[in-house]
Structures are given as C-alpha cells and as structure tokens.
Write a structure and sequence with these properties.
The chain has 2 domains: 249 residues, 3-Layer(aba) Sandwich (Rossmann fold), CATH 3.40.50; 52 residues, no CATH class. The protein has 14 helices and 7 strands. Helices cover 52% and strands 12% of the residues. Bound molecules: guanosine-5'-triphosphate (GTP) and magnesium ion.
C-alpha cells in the first residue's frame, strides 16, 4: 500500500505527496520504509529556509518567492513548520494558490505542520516532508519556521540556504542573534522596510557581522524588503542565487549536505536509543531494584548508570 503511494508520488501525484506526509506525521513507524524507498529519488531540490521571530513577514516573503518561482516555471514546495499565520498567496495569485494540503494548479505544493500530534517529533516529520517533496520533483523547497532558539537552529539541518528575517523594532532579537543565529544565517532580511528604523536594524546586523564573520568566504548579505509590496524581493532572490553559486564552488554544497546527513543519523540513533530506554528499561523491575540500591546508599547514581549501560550493551546485540 505504501509502495503504491510512493509510486504515485514519483509520478508527480499531489495527493500522494499529501498522503505520505500525513503518514509520517501520524504513523512514524512507517517513516523508515517510506524514506528507504524515496531516498534514491532525493537530493536534487534546492532547499531554502525562512526563519525569524513571529510576525516579521516570513509567510509573506515565502508567498513572494512562490510567485517568482511560478513565473519562472520552477516546481515549488512549501513546508510551514508551526507557523501561526496563513499564507496570503490568494491575494497574490488570485485563487490559483490556496492554503491547504495541496494545490495542483500551478505546480505548487503547500503544507503546514504543527507541533501537535507528532508522535515522532516535529523535526523528524518536517525533514521527512522535505524529502517527500524532493522525491515528488520539487525543484525548490521553501521551509518556514517560526520562533527563536532550537527550531531556528534545527532548520540548518535540512536546508541549503538559511534566510533569517527581522524587521524594524526587533532590537532585542538582533541582540540575541549573537547567540547562535549569526552562525546559521546565510542571508539576512530586514523586512517591513516601509516602517521607520529599517536602516538602524541593518546597521546593527552589519556591526555584528563585522565582529562575527571570521570566515570571509561568505559574508551574509543584509537585504531590505517590503514583502507586502514586493520591494527588494528581486535582490533577495538574487542573493539566494549567489549563495547557491557559492555553495557549488569548492564542494561546499556536498560538504554541507554531508554534515546534515551526519546530524540526521546522529539524531535518529539517539532517538532510537531513547525510545529503547524509556520503553524497555525504564519500566523494568531491574531499574526499580537499582533505585532501591541507590536510595539505601548501597551504590551511587553513576554506578547505577554504568550497570544499566553494561546491560544495554549486552542486550543491544539482539534486534530492537
Ligand atoms: N508594513 C508591512 N507589513 C508587512 C510586511 N510584510 C508582511 N507584513 C505584515 O505583517 C503581518 C505578518 O506577516 P506574516 O507574513 O504572516 O509574518 P510571519 O513571519 O509569517 O508570521 P508568523 O508565521 O506568525 O511567525 C501581516 O499582517 C503582513 O501583512 C511589510 O513589508 N511591511
Ligand atoms: Mg508565517
């Protein structure tokens, strides 16, 4: 049954793409088999991440990108992770793009994924969704993530180019960017350039870049946009193209993607180990016995840990 959906996906069936994403969202036990069968068909899409604090205009920027991509006949997929605002694509393209699971009119596939109902974790589900859209034949995949912190850092694990969006009046955000976000941004966007204070934010970012950028090979450009009017979008698109060209030099894209694969393998292994621990070990009488022994001061916590690890090592030889 799953293979049938995969076959339909590979032949470009929108509904199959939607169905398979639902499968990995709702039944993560099916994910390995799906991923195994689509893996040979992935790797050719360009993947761009849009991140930044709530309300800066990420969805509006993504909308604009969809619009440009459509005009260039680029098959585009969008994954919006935990985004609170809907796409306004309708306003841009009449009723040709509708927010929803799939829109098969213009070669655009849009999908929102929320934190709720993800048995296997949102990061894993969203990475899976990106791979499904890749196998589906999307040439361009846009990933929107909202929030500050982990979700922004997770984004680099799946994209080629990270666009960090800010807007005037986000001084605090710019300050926190020093911690972590500077390193992940390939391009900065200061959106809502129609509002006062835009140059100040640009200057702030440039100042931080002056101090932070040790690797001179790529200095993230800072682009001003007004997404609602479409101003600056051409510059942003060009910046993405330049970054792509940069990645394609000296094997950087390959290096980046291999680093991502490494991270993903690591995440999968750790998740599997955790599951094994919680499901099999934590409930076992054996651990309760260890708790008693630690409580009575017969052994200490670290010895208890080592005893468990020893046993896991032994028993891991059996299949999970
Ligand atoms: N003035 C102005 N408003 C904008 C601009 N871009 C987007 N907006 C508005 O800002 C609001 C938020 O835009 P979204 O695109 O939904 O922002 P977002 O970052 O996707 O928001 P979340 O998904 O909730 O994090 C909407 O009312 C937009 O119309 C802009 O360039 N200028
Ligand atoms: Mg949004």
């Amino acid at each position: 049954m799953k293979m049938e959906w995969v076959k339909r996906l590979l032949s470009g069936d929108h509904f199959a793409a939607s169905k398979l994403i639902s499968m990995i969202e709702n039944k993560p036990s099916k994910t390995p088999e799906i991923m195994r069968s689509i893996h040979p068909h992935t790797g050719s899409a360009r993947i761009i991440g849009f991140t930044g604090p709530p309300g800066v205009g990420k969805s509006t920027l993504v909308d604009r990108f969809i619009y440009i991509a459509c005009a260039k006949n680029i098959k585009t997929g969008v994954i919006a992770i935990d985004a609170s605002s809907p796409f306004t694509g309708g306003a841009l393209l009449g009723d040709r793009i509708r927010m929803g699971d799939y829109s098969d009119k213009e070669g655009v596939f849009i999908r929102s994924m929320g934190t709720r109902g993800h048995m296997g974790g949102l990061a894993e589900a969203s990475r899976g969704a990106v791979k499904i859209l890749d196998a589906f034949g999307c040439d361009l995949i846009l990933v929107e993530t909202v929030g500050v912190g982990q979700s922004e850092l997770d984004i680099v694990k799946e994209v080629d180019t990270v666009i960090v969006a800010t807007m005037p009046g986000t001084g605090d955000y710019v300050q926190t960017m020093k911690a972590g976000i500077m390193e992940i941004a390939d391009i900065f966007v200061v959106n809502k350039a129609d509002l006062p204070g835009v140059d100040l934010v640009c200057m702030e970012i440039e100042k931080i870049l002056d101090i932070a950028s040790k690797d001179n090979a790529w200095r993230p450009p800072v682009i001003k946009t007004c997404a609602t009017k479409g101003d600056g979008l051409k510059d942003l698109w060009e910046a993405v193209d330049s970054h792509r060209a940069f990645l394609e030099e000296e094997g950087r894209l390959e290096e980046r993607r291999k680093a991502q694969i490494r991270e993903e393998i690591g995440d999968l292994v750790l998740r599997r180990l955790k599951e094994e621990f919680w499901s099999t070990w934590y409930e076992e009488a054996k651990i309760l016995e260890l708790v008693d022994r630690v409580f009575s001061r017969e052994i200490d916590l670290y010895s208890a840990r080592d005893l468990i690890l020893e046993r896991i090592k032994r028993e891991m030889r059996r299949p999970f």
